[in-house]
Design brief:
Layout (H helix, E strand, L loop, with lengths): L1 E6 L3 H12 L3 E7 L3 H11 L2 E3 L2 H7 L4 E4 L6 H10 L3 E4 L7 H14 L3 E3 L7 H11 L6 E9 L22 H17 L4 E8 L9 E7 L5 E7 L9 E8 L2 E6 L2 E6 L11 E6 H4 L10 H16 L8 H18 L1
Helix pairs in contact: 4-5, 5-10, 6-7, 7-10
């Protein structure tokens, strides 16, 4: 059994706790949170050991790995403390508030030879995985433009700095808490950009953070990119993410539900013929043993636990790939001013 510790039992922490509890090779040995009412309830009804101090938990418990689901500003110190004790780390996204901190964690995890992963769950959605496979295989030729977007109604009324999500110094705001998913997905499909040409961070309802992000990107092969995210868009009931990749032989439009591929006349790839081919999530998503919110949430945890078991330090969604996402986010913020 893999002994797991959990730091932070808010929304994502509780989600991880549920999925980990159903994993056949996992024992949730301990949890840590500053909210006493949460820890006391979990201790009473699950029997798990609880702590208010993560260092105390890591010092006392014999853990193989931890899941970090706390505000982003705390990720570096918690992850570094765990890795230095030889404990594998799964961190919620984004990895750190600065790419310098992310780079340090990459090197530390490599030096200590521990598994590491960041919770960008889009990488485990079947339609997006198929999009990446097709692009990397050259199915649409050389890519020359990519666009990524996400819309939803997270902040739809005037909001002041009440929680950490309304404080950019804690990791709040649309760029770090929302757009990071799209940035990472674009990196996953076509690789990270070499530069951000222009960017705008726009406040709509929030007074201390941005509610929308717009950016133009440039890639090493000369391709262009466009990022558009808005978490104050009431036309979408929940987060809706789309990526479009244009290539010399066709294009791909992909979202959570379907992967639509257009190939130019005379072009084909495997069972994709010229014109439009649509594949749905139901035929692309691999099944999981436990479903909560979406297969991708269990799939990412299954992947990490497998990496811990095999001592794989360069698995899917590694700190190294998360560093590239943090670097892109940093470039966007710097160019936006």
């Amino acid at each position: 059994m893999i002994n797991v510790g959990l730091v932070g039992v808010g929304k994502m922490g509780m989600s991880h706790f549920s999925i980990l509890g159903a994993h056949p090779n996992v024992k949730v040995a301990a949890i840590c949170d500053s909210a006493g009412y949460l820890t006391s309830g979990l201790r009473k009804y699950t029997g798990v050991n609880t702590y208010k101090d993560y260092q105390q938990m890591l010092d006392k418990e014999s853990l193989d790995c931890i899941f970090v689901a706390t505000p982003t500003r705390t990720h570096y110190e918690i992850a570094a403390y765990a890795i230095n004790k030889g404990i594998a780390v799964f961190s919620e996204k984004p990895l750190c508030l600065s790419s310098d901190e992310s780079a340090k964690l990459v090197e530390l995890a490599k030096a200590k030879q521990v598994a590491n992963q960041v919770g960008y769950h889009n990488r485990f959605i079947g339609t997006f995985r198929e999009t990446r496979r097709l692009v990397q295989a050259g199915a649409i030729g050389d890519f020359y433009h990519v666009s990524g977007s996400a819309f939803g109604q997270v902040v739809i009324k005037a909001k002041t700095g009440i929680t950490w999500r309304a404080n950019k110094n804690h990791g709040g705001g649309c760029l770090q808490d929302y757009a990071s998913h799209v940035v990472d997905l674009m990196n996953f499909v076509v690789g990270p950009p070499e530069a951000v040409l222009s960017a705008q961070l726009q406040s709509i309802y929030s007074d201390a953070v941005e509610d929308a992000v717009y950016a133009s990107l440039r890639y090493p092969n000369g391709a262009s990119g466009q990022l558009e995210t808005n978490w104050s868009d009431e036309s979408h009931r929940k987060m809706s993410t789309t990526i479009i990749v244009y290539g010399t032989k066709g294009k791909i439009i992909s979202d959570r539900q379907e992967c639509r591929v257009f190939l130019k006349a005379g072009e084909s790839f495997e069972d994709y013929q010229e014109g439009w081919t649509i594949k749905y999530i139901t035929e692309l998503q691999e099944p999981v043993n436990f479903y909560l919110r979406g297969e991708e949430y269990s799939a990412q945890i299954d992947s990490f636990i497998a990496a811990v078991e095999k001592k794989n330090v360069a698995g899917e969604n590694s700190f190294a790939s998360a560093y590239q996402t943090d670097r892109t986010i940093e470039m966007i913020r710097n160019i936006a001013g």
